[in-house]
Amino acid sequence: MDYSITVEDLPDDRDLLIPVNVSTYDGEDAALTCFAEFKETVREYAEKYSGSLLSRDALGYLFSKVDPVMKARGYSMPDDAFEIDLVALLREAPEEGPCAAVNSKNARGLENLTGIDIDEAAMLHQEAFVCVEDGKIVSVAVENFCEDGCVEIACETAEGYRGRGYAFSACAALCRDIIDGGYAVKWQCSENNAASVALARKLGFTPVGREMYMCYFSNENGEDL
Fold first, then answer.
1. What is the value of pTM for the model shown?
2. Does the pLDDT of residue 65 top 90, yes or no?
């Protein structure tokens, strides 16, 4: 697999650092992003594992080179684990879900049981669709951002209301609205998030790529950058 390496400057005074990011998309060269000091390490990794950049062996090798340097700076990766994200696209509007879903503008003032702030979304001009049960908002699907003709979305259903079709219904309504506006819809989630992967599949999303971020967080007693 062909690849390109983009080098970034090491930022100052950050609680979160991402020293390496690997993105592989169908029909495209792999995109590798790293801090300058890891450029040679990333190049060696890409050459050694050119056919399987996101295999566990490949990422284990990369982690073994990057982790000691980051720990010496006072940063660590929780549980020494990294997540691989699935990226999928939807271009055709899905069918309506089994539950009623309405634009969040029609649910203002109702108690919101999810962690998604629909008032903030409205301020940012991000469309959101919700499902209401017992006079409360129990599920929300919201736009995140738009890039290259694709709108990424996120969703959340309140605990106790999951598994009833609310997430599908809210997401389907939002996807139809986005696609009617001439955009594709992007879905990104951890490959280990079985519920999110299953929902994307049910909505009709097609996998187009995978991404890996090595996320390091500052330790309370670590050295400052």
1. 0.88
2. yes
